[in-house]
Amino acid sequence: MGGSGTMAPWPMFMHDRKHTGRSPFMGAREGRVRWRLGWKGGIYSSFVIGSDGTIYFGGFYRRKHHHGYYLYAVGPDGSLKWRFRVENLIESTPAISDDGTIYAGSSDGFFYAVNPNGTLKWKLETEKRAGISSIDSSPVIGDDETVYFGSFDAYLRAVNPDGTEKWRFKAAGSIYSSPAIDDDGTVYFSDNGGTVYGGLIVSYLYALDRSGNLKWKIPFNAAHLTASPAIGEDGTIYIGACYVFYAINPDGTIKWKYENIELESCRSCPAISEDGTIYVTFENIFLAFGPDGKLKWKLYYWRYPPGETTFNPSPAIGKDGTIYVGGDKLQAFDPSGSVKWEYGYGKLRSSNIETSPVIGDGVVYVGMPKYYGDMEYLYVIE
What we know:
Blueprint: E1 33-43, E2 48-49, E3 55-63, E4 66-74, E5 80-86, E6 95-96, E7 102-105, E8 110-114, E9 120-125, E10 140-141, E11 147-150, E12 155-159, E13 165-170, E14 180-181, E15 187-190, E16 195-197, E17 200-208, E18 214-220, E19 230-231, E20 237-241, E21 244-248, E22 254-259, E23 271-272, E24 278-282, E25 285-289, E26 295-300, E27 316-317, E28 323-325, E29 329-333, E30 339-344, H1 345-348, E31 358-359, E32 364-369, E33 375-381
Antiparallel strand pairs: 1-3, 1-33, 2-3, 3-4, 4-5, 6-7, 7-8, 8-9, 10-11, 11-12, 12-13, 14-15, 15-17, 16-17, 17-18, 19-20, 20-21, 21-22, 23-24, 24-25, 25-26, 27-28, 28-29, 29-30, 31-32, 32-33
């Protein structure tokens, strides 16, 4: 499970702290709806799945005389278990600890720890930068239950389970990237730029030790780097930037890179299969690389490119190697790049899928807005 340290089917962004996007379960096989849950409002984060099958996500609820922002808990049968009100949107993916605590950051700069029964455990506030505070970085939980997340104030924070700050590290720019953690506790993340370097805005990929000390940083000639890194079994770090996909050695040297003018911005996180194949989306291009850097295939497939939404849809991989990815529809690919099935735009009149697919036992969870109207749906596809 890539070191998730829990039996939850999908406890955090990209499944585990290495961000492999790889599930120990088979995902959806037929591409049909098991059930769906809809309401007036929107789903603003991707989903996580607890050990009891509870689905957690951030959303907005709107009716004629009532609206609000919430962290939702939905049972495996589609019933609403509870909703926890927050002051602003939760757009980053929550994370679930071994004891069932749900962690989530909001767009007003607050980071929440919520008990499994939907009550507040604690919250902390990040600092304002240029009058703005926001947490768009999805939290990741370390092997000692330390919680790591970035924020608009340019700090990468390590927080203890009781809500006290363990340490913080100041990056050059705001952090939208979700940190990934290797087996030795090294934390990798990118920032959104802010350093003038040769006339360009430079973003960095950082490596910190588990005490928050800088091991190294690599400059990328790319402003607004919001992609999250993923870590292979050999410790290689994979991340996309403008026009380039990188493989970085654990010592900070470049292992290989793939450059192509077609690859515009990358806002997604790669997924890594059991055989080491890396799958990543750049705007409307879906690519597969071998661990040696050789391009296996490249597809142009979406009416609405996966990278164009705020929500950074990233691939997910089932136990049998099937790759699931969103766009204007949910698509299932085999490892050769052939489409196994697809579900979405034509059948549901849905617009762009704004969440990354999440795999449960025999199902895939995905959020789809309705193309006409203001309804949003949580779909469970089998």
